[in-house]
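Q: I have 154 residues here and want to know how they pack in 3D. Can you give me a structure?
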Amino acid sequence: MSLDNFEHEFFGIGIQNGKTPENLGALWRSAQNLGASFIFTIGNRYAKQSSDTHQAVKTMPYFHYDTFEAFYKNLPKGAMLVGVELASEAVALETFHHPRRCVYLLGAEDHGLSKLAREKSHHLVRFASIKSLNVAIAGSIVMYDRNLPKPRMT
């Protein structure tokens, strides 16, 4: 029996330059509950959060990268980078077909994703929202949408 690792689905989710530690903990808790394979931060360091009541960093791989460049060099082989950004060029989440293997990247509420992160993303997605949402809520919506019975991008 042979396994083709590229047929198996996985996803990771993380934040670039997260604004508040509480948002990290809330996103980690959702990631654990919604099936993420790993979590990560770029920029600010992670510290234990009271909102991470499930202690997700103890139950799934957690990675920290000092810069976007270091993160990008270490994307899992075969994974697509999906930036989550309230931008006109982004595809509506409601019609987006999630890649089978991907990494979702969110930016801080006050600055969003860096220009380099937007440029390097294989896909940019957005969802209907009048204003920017809390980053943990936005990430939870994306992960929930991934779990809906929709076709996958191959």
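Q: Anything worth noting?
A: The longest strand covers residues 10-16. The chain has one domain: 9-146.
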